[in-house]
Write a structure and sequence with these properties.
By secondary structure, this protein is α/β, with parallel strands linked by helices. The protein has 23 helices and 14 strands.
Length: 527
């Protein structure tokens, strides 16, 4: 765990994040930066989960002054399968962990609070040692016999180990003090936020943009590192092979912990609510708060777009990270479809390429293989509001989204959008309420991973300039009426304030000192 030099004892809000702000640009990171920057009367501490030490080169954002600390917690450490003396000395903690994992195997998470107390009260240098302690072996063997008797025990053990080792790391982390803990996903960040809230007896809230378990299911389905032995009867039963089910269950368990511990759950659109309830969230905790953008920031770009002369080349823009979940390969293949009718079409891919360099290279090679080197530009990170006025159409080819800010930004400029049918894209382009739908259609929806459909949608907008303008105006009006950042910020200011103001103020002393003082008062009263 690495602590920044700006680390501090206490913040109003501790944001618990995984693989995002302040190390990764765009998407959820932009949303987080927006919240922190606008609510400058509050102090924020960022507790960030990274895969390993030195995974990121540095910050992708200049931190606002009200960020008083950044701390990384690392999921993985070199395997230290010695079991050994430390685990023996901490056998009570080991026993608590073994009991919790046994309960989780049966679908129960009620022992989480006791587990947090046990871990936080014991200084453990190498939490992975607890996993191989003899107290855990009965549970491991029982799980294998109940769930995976036809599989390799060695394969089962290593999947079990690599699933639970990060949890042990998280639960032994040093947890900063804050008035309220706010996580932007379930999964590892959700568990860490829940642990911090339990340890410091403060509320934890969750804002889920994309549904974490859904995104993990997509990744697990395609994962090559999961080695399964597929039998004919599994195909007949229409179920995933065992180890893919094992990992899905593991991430579902972490989501349930987060949902159970959260005092409030927020999400971006109604479709997410159904997914959250299905994954175990209490409907009474859930509230929808849509994304919002700074409309003032896009006034000048909108004027530039409206007043510019027609592009000499029909120009399509993609704004986002070049990574598998954004499915840039589909965009590249769709460009080939468009080029057959519009030979000089220009597609500008605008977004960071460092998240998955291998995938980015594959996309570039595909463009070359399809004879598109004159048609596609991979431009890296850009100032979105400066570039969008230069586009004719904005395209989104993601296989998973929540409520993409890029559609709101494109709409604010007046761009029509072609987007896959994921997340809230359908209601962003077509409207959510009768009043909203009356504004008209802001773009075209296409199936996931369909270069042909994406290409045809782009061509439909290329062929009809009046349709492009009409859709752009409709989306622009929708964004102005229903997706103003002012409303978003007012909601979160109120949420944070409600939790900060209900906190009993106390001297910044350690828990033992508080207990000693309380005991002295009791003795004095009794005397």
């Amino acid at each position: 765990m690495r602590v920044s030099e700006h680390d501090a004892d206490r913040a109003d809000v501790c944001l618990v994040l995984e693989g995002t702000y302040p190390f990764v640009a765009g998407g959820v990171s932009s949303w987080v930066h927006q919240i922190i920057s606008a609510l400058d009367e509050l102090t924020f501490f960022v507790l960030h989960i990274s895969p390993v030490a030195d995974y990121y080169d540095g910050y992708a954002y200049e931190l606002p002054d009200n960020v008083i600390g950044v701390r990384e917690v690392f999921l993985h450490e070199p395997a230290r399968l010695r079991g050994g003396f430390e685990a023996y000395r901490k056998r009570k903690v080991t026993a608590a962990f073994a009991k919790f994992l046994s309960d989780v195997r049966d679908g129960a998470t009620h022992g989480f609070e006791d587990l947090v107390y046990a871990f936080q009260r014991s200084a453990i240098k190498h939490p992975a040692n607890l996993l191989v302690h003899r107290l855990n072996w009965p549970g491991i063997v029982a799980g294998f016999r109940e769930q995976a008797g036809d599989e390799s025990f060695l394969n089962y053990f290593w999947n079990w180990y690599y699933a639970h080792q990060p949890l042990a790391r998280l639960l032994t982390s040093r947890l900063p003090r804050a008035s309220v803990y706010h996580t932007i996903s379930t999964g590892y960040a959700g568990v860490l936020a829940a642990a911090a809230a339990v340890h410091h007896d403060r509320p934890m809230i969750l804002t889920e943009h994309g549904i974490y378990t859904k995104e993990r299911r997509i990744e697990i389905h395609a994962a090559e590192w999961i080695q399964d032995r597929v039998e004919d009867d599994l195909v007949a039963l229409n179920q995933a092979p065992f180890f893919r089910r094992f990992w899905n269950h593991h991430f579902e368990m972490m989501s349930r912990i987060c949902y159970d511990q959260a005092s409030e759950i927020f999400t971006l659109y109604n479709g997410n609510v159904r997914e959250q309830i299905k994954d175990g969230a209490d409907p009474a905790k859930i509230r929808v708060i849509p994304n919002g953008i700074s409309l003032d920031r896009f006034d000048a770009p909108a004027r530039r777009h409206a007043e510019r002369p027609p592009n000499r080349r029909f120009t399509v823009g993609f704004v986002g990270r070049v990574c598998p979940i954004k499915d840039v390969r589909t965009l590249v293949a769709a460009t080939r479809v468009v080029k057959d009718r519009v030979p000089d079409v220009l597609v500008r891919v605008l977004g960071p390429m460092e998240e998955d360099p291998q995938y980015a290279e594959e996309c570039q090679k595909l463009a070359l293989a399809l004879d598109l080197e004159q048609n596609i530009r991979f431009e890296g990170r850009v100032a979105v509001h400066e570039v969008m006025p230069e586009l004719d159409v904005l395209v989104l080819t993601s296989i998973s989204e929540a409520q993409p800010l890029v559609i709101l930004e494109g709409g604010a400029v007046g761009l029509p959008v072609v987007a896959t049918d994921v997340g809230s894209c359908h209601e962003l382009l077509g409207g959510r309420t009768p009043e909203d739908r009356a504004l008209g259609i802001g773009g075209l929806i296409t199936p996931i991973a369909s270069p042909g459909a994406t290409g045809r949608a782009i061509l439909e907008l290329w062929a009809d300039e009046s349709l492009r303008h009409a859709m752009g105006r409709s989306l622009q009006e929708r964004v102005r009426r229903f997706y103003d950042q002012v409303d978003l910020l007012a909601s979160y200011r109120s949420i944070y304030r409600s939790h900060i103001e209900d906190e009993v103020l106390f001297e910044d002393t350690d828990d033992d000192a508080v207990d000693d003082a309380s005991e002295a008062i009791v003795h004095e009263v009794l005397a």
